[in-house]
Amino acid sequence: MSDVGRFLSSFFANISILFLLMYAASLIYKYAAYRLSPLWKEVLFIALAIISGWTTMHYGFRFSETVIFDLRFLAVIIASMIVRNPLSILTIGIGLGLARLSFGINQAAVVGCTNVIFMSLLCTAIIVWAKRKQVGFYARMTIVILVVNTMNVVYIAAFGVIPTREYLLEMAPGSLIISLVLSFLYMFMLREFMMEANRKQQLELSHIRLEEQYRISEEKGEELRLAKQKLEEKNEQLVLASQYKSEFLANMSHELRTPLNAMLVLSQILEENAEGRMSEEEVRYAGLIHTSGKGLLGLINEVLDLSKIEAGHMDVEPEEFNVRELLQHMEQTFMPLALQKGIALRVTYRDEIPEYMYADRVRLQQIIQNMMANALKFTEQGTVHLSAYPASSPSHAEHGSDKPYEWLAFTVEDTGIGIPAEKQSMIFEAFHQADGTTSRKYGGTGLGLSISKQFAALMGGFIELESHVGQGSRFTLYLPWLVLANVNDANNS
What we know:
CATH class of the largest domain: Alpha Beta
Strand content: 5-15%
Order of helices and strands: HHEEHHHHHHEHEEHEEHHEEH
CATH architecture of the largest domain: 2-Layer Sandwich
Shape: rod-shaped
Helix content: 55-70%
Distance between the termini: 128 Å
Radius of gyration: 52 Å
Oligomer: single chain
Number of helices: 13
CATH superfamily of the largest domain: Histidine kinase-like ATPase, C-terminal domain
Number of domains: 3
């Protein structure tokens, strides 16, 4: 076989070896190396590149005992695609140069050593320049491939031991073309491999993140389950506490009311002094006992009503009753107190209001009594006016009906001390008053309006407040007109 034939055979043997080594490297990376840190990946690649170059030299074409022709410079080109640090390319070049000297130190070995080191310096310089100029991957690698392959031919022709004419005319044309083709082929193959490796790494990272998120969601789910369990336990405890409170209040109601009622009856008998045995001072003391007992009984009733509402044990008991008689009863009840304080008390109602209505008479009476009592309590002079009339409330139109009016309104208006705007919502809360000093000056617990508001809600209505400091207050109870339907239907039938 001629030298050219043996050269081509050796050339393709080098190509086969490089393909085999590249495939082996891809398997190593696929199943082991991709888990390494970037630094260890770089070190592993440098070692594999030097081993690949040494292998191609071992199976390279030998012109003589000292002259070896191989494709070791392809390892430098491939390194330009993969390594992160440009100095790693120079490290590979020096490693390949030393590997060439391992086959014997002679002129050809020195030329081969300096050739591969020179090629690595060229690649390093091109990579550094391309990074500064931000040259794209394909443009950068095209420059590397063309420059390295061309300079390799020039270097061998200038310094190699093969006769220049023989090398340039018989070997260089074919080897340069094949080397360029192989270089570009490796570039595209390795680029695809690198992209696939990056995609796999991204998928691996995504999988790890998903597992972490799933673990966190599982922990959160367990925390939510435990929190829900604790809330259920707390709820059960609250239900039991509410039950115990209701039972306690029911028992206390009986235990407190029985002796209190006896005290009220006895004090009233003493106050009446039917047989005239008591002095005026003793009668006055008996009256004070009776008045204080009635106040205590009212306080007990308010606390019991509030606890029943909070526990959901308060039911509405509607009945048919005469509205105008209820208003007259309010006038008769509060007129003595108004006369005592020198306040003008007026009770009016419009003809449009029904004579009878169907609602919880006891709760309605209690609401009006609370509003009337507060009006008289906080009014030193002027008037207190209770009125009943049909009304429409655009702000609550969703509660309306097809009746002529949406609401039946009961308004208590006074000329008392008034309530500041910032305190008007507070007075409907239990145990709150507009001013803490009012409880000392006027008395009261702050429960009346809170209970009235909740009674109104139980009957499907609400209470509105208009007030200005020093100008009085206007409390309005709105009840839905539909409460009259049962009475009207009964009368029509």
